[in-house]
Amino acid sequence: MTIRTVVITGASRGLGLASAVHLYKAGWCVIAAMRSVEAGMERLRAETGAAANDPRLLGVKLDLDDAASIAAAARSIEAAVGAPDVLVHNAGIAAAGAFEDMPSSAWTQIFATNLFGPIELTRALLPSMRAAGRGRIVIVSSQGAVRGMPAISAYSASKGAIERWGESLAGEVAPFGLGVSVVVTGTFKTDILVQTADYRNYKGAYAAHYVGIDKTGEIVVGAANAPERFARVLAKAISARGPYARYAAGIDAVMLLLMSRMMPGWLLHWVVCLAMRLPRTGALRAVAMLAGSNRRTEKTT
């Protein structure tokens, strides 16, 4: 029996770690691609019980912000297993803050990691997968790709972009025997919130937004799913046979996908704003106008 191979980016923690452990235990050969290989492999071996020389659990250094690192990782992967059966784009970063509060450098960083890095890694591995006549590319997406979410606009935009790329790619690679899967994730119990850069200004124009969002966030995080539930959905996504498939992981992701299909855009917008406890339409107009007037007065005195 041939052992199938899967490359998982961001496999050192969170959803990537849970997925790597799940697939290793299911008999896959797992190539864990991550920035900190030594620390990540230590966690993986502790979770799987794998020996240090286990050929079914391999670590590869990968920094999605570094073109040289991407090229080196692709070479290491192909040297170890040839063309991988599955490439899972799981690694990603986020940042919190309204559009005006978030600097352009944060947008650049998020798109480099969430979109351009995965694209370049695929570009490096796709020729061998195409030549093998098999393979699947799996994109770990987010609710933010279904509906742009306030205070995480850069993250939402990057996830929406990679989903559209994946849809386009599916049509291009299907004739060669390859397919694409997208997994829309809900909220899971990981350390992404701890790692997320925070640009929110609680004394600025969007302070009222953040207060409401924080209240909703406490509830959402408290009800977050275990990463192992995501890993089970991912296992289905990598085994899909059609040219394109889309899955939802987590009840919140399932509900949002259903609402996006059933509701007109204006109604879904209203539901999202209500759920996130945002100020009602026009509620801050007078405050903003007064602040603008005060600034003009200060400039003339």
Keywords:
301 residues, 12 helices, Rossmann fold, two-stranded parallel ribbon, 54% helix, 7-stranded parallel β-sheet, alpha/beta
Indicate the topology:
Layout: E1 5-9, H1 14-25, E2 29-34, H2 37-48, E3 57-61, H3 67-81, E4 86-89, E5 95-96, H4 104-132, E6 136-142, H5 143-146, H6 153-173, E7 179-185, H7 192-195, E8 197-198, H8 207-222, H9 227-238, E9 244-249, H10 251-262, H11 265-275, H12 285-300
Parallel strand pairs: 1-2, 1-4, 2-3, 4-6, 5-8, 6-7, 7-9
What does this structure look like?
- It is a single chain.
- The protein is of the alpha/beta class.
- The chain has a single domain (5-300), classed as NAD(P)-binding Rossmann-like Domain (Rossmann fold).
- Helix content is 54%, strand content 15%.
- The protein has helices spanning 14-25, 37-48, 67-81, 104-132, 143-146, 153-173, 192-195, 207-222, 227-238, 251-262, 265-275, 285-300, and strands spanning 5-9, 29-34, 57-61, 86-89, 95-96, 136-142, 179-185, 197-198, 244-249.
- The strands form two sheets. The chain has a seven-stranded parallel sheet with strand order 3-2-1-4-6-7-9, with helices on both faces.
- Strand 2 (29-34), helix 2 (37-48) and strand 3 (57-61) form a beta-alpha-beta unit.
- Helix 3 (67-81) runs parallel beside helix 4 (104-132).
- The longest helix has 29 residues, at 104-132.
- It is elongated and about 75 Å long.
- The termini are far apart.
- The mean pLDDT is 93.
